[in-house]
Amino acid sequence: MNPDLSKLQPYPFEKLARLKGAVTANPALPHIALSIGEPKHPSPEFVQQALIDSIASLENYPTTKGLPELNETIASWLKRRFKLSQVDAATQVIPVTGTREALFAFAQAVVDRSAANPLVVSPNPFYQIYEGAAYLAGATPHFLPCLAENGFNPDYSAVPAQVWEDCQLLYICTPGNPTGATLNFDDFKQLIELADKHDFILASDECYSEIYVDGKDAPMGLLEACEKLGRHDYKNCVVFHSLSKRSNLPGLRSGFVAGDAALLKPFLLFRTYHGCAMPVQTQMASIAAWNDEQHVEQNRTYYSEKFRRVIEILSPVLPVEQTDAGFYLWVETPVDDETFAQQLFAQQNVTVLPGSYLSRTVDGINPGKNRVRMALVAGVDECVEAAHRIRAYVESL
Questions:
Q1: pTM for the complete prediction?
Q2: Residue 8 sits in which domain range?
């Protein structure tokens, strides 16, 4: 067996299942899950219809590169959304079967495991795929704390030069999971300059970019920053996007990677052997989804209402604040995060995720300690009910 498999930690939801298994939930209350970032809004009917209409394509093998129509659709969406003057659909876009597998596979393709000390750098807390991808690519993960005093973004200026020298791949997550923090142009400019100086790759996970509060500016993306800097080749830069959150289509397993053609060419070769081509009917449904913004705007309206109402209920008893984007609340708890999550489940049958399960302790500091992640993915009424129960639990302490 690959010895690096032994380095993988249990997934956060495995830990959560054990934590909840030690208690019994209040049987008088129906369960409300705010733990998993799985959208519960209805998937668009026109996307379902596009899937049905193309079902005859089951008789065809899909290509790893994807249909030209899908790549062109994605390139056009990128240009509209991020104000890009050019995106070459043939060389700068690859459709992927969900960004989870692509974020993992990308590290396998680009990390040089023969280097003296290959590092994959990521925020902390983080999406656990970054860590697993690093280990199985033969690299060591290096975590940068996301603390309140720095707006829940890493302090990139405080990173030692040797870390940047050893870094081969830097995962960015903007909007952040679980913090909801976003990067601005100056942040991106700093990272691009660092990548140029130390020759590492920027991989920007932007899967939550389309979920932001009504009235706020759409979050900036890495390619948008490249455009402002006149870097139309997107050197050393790739972005990952998904229909899961944007369009309430987690089961479609559809996303894309876009950016530096010099990086995507060998990544496409890797994917050809990896065997992860997107089914043709999924590609046709994806074209329909990327071409429509009305359902995305409605999605944002739902989330904006949930944020407003939940924060209104919780703010008198918890230090809860509106995040920049995404659909999470990253809430500081009055007791340790595991106790909070376990007893909330026992007393109120509401599940949230302990923040320490999403973080690693580095130099004695775990940025997720005494915080929980609340995913406002259920319907408005369920989220409001959950907020009332959480408040009741806090008031009982």
A1: 0.96
A2: 3-42+295-396
